[in-house]
Specification:
The chain has about 90 residues and is α+β, with helices and mostly antiparallel strands. Helices cover about 30% and strands about 35% of the residues. It has one domain. Strands 1, 2, 3, 4 and 5 form a 5-stranded mixed sheet that branches.
Length: about 90
C-alpha cells in the first residue's frame, strides 16, 4: 500500500491504516508508514472515549508534521466501533 498518493490538487495524501489487534477484542492499531524515513508511527487504542481521544491526538500529530490531506483507511475487515465518539472521530476526519 502506498502511503502518499497524489490527488487532483497535487497535494500529498497520507493514509492512516486502522486494523483490529488479533485476539484482543475492542483493541485496535492505527499506523502510518513513512517510506522516506523507513519508519512506522502507530497508536494502539481501545473502542472507548479515551481511545477516541488517543486516535484524534495521533491524527493531529501527523497533521502537524505532514500538512495536506489525511484519510483513515480501515482494514479489509469491517470494523464496527461501539463507542460513538470513536465513530465520530473517524467520520469527521475522512
Amino acid at each position: 500500500m502506498t502511503s502518499f498518493k497524489q490527488n487532483s490538487n497535487m497535494q500529498k495524501k497520507l493514509e492512516i491504516i486502522i486494523k483490529p489487534v488479533k485476539n484482543m477484542e475492542s483493541d485496535f492499531v492505527a499506523y502510518y508508514k513513512s517510506d522516506m524515513l523507513s519508519a512506522t508511527y502507530s497508536c494502539f487504542f481501545k473502542d472507548t472515549i479515551m481511545g477516541a481521544l488517543a486516535l484524534n491526538a495521533f491524527y493531529d500529530m501527523l497533521k502537524h508534521k505532514y500538512p495536506g490531506q489525511i484519510d483513515f483507511c480501515v482494514s479489509e475487515h469491517e470494523l464496527d466501533f461501539k463507542n460513538q465518539a470513536l465513530s465520530d472521530v473517524l467520520s469527521e476526519k475522512t
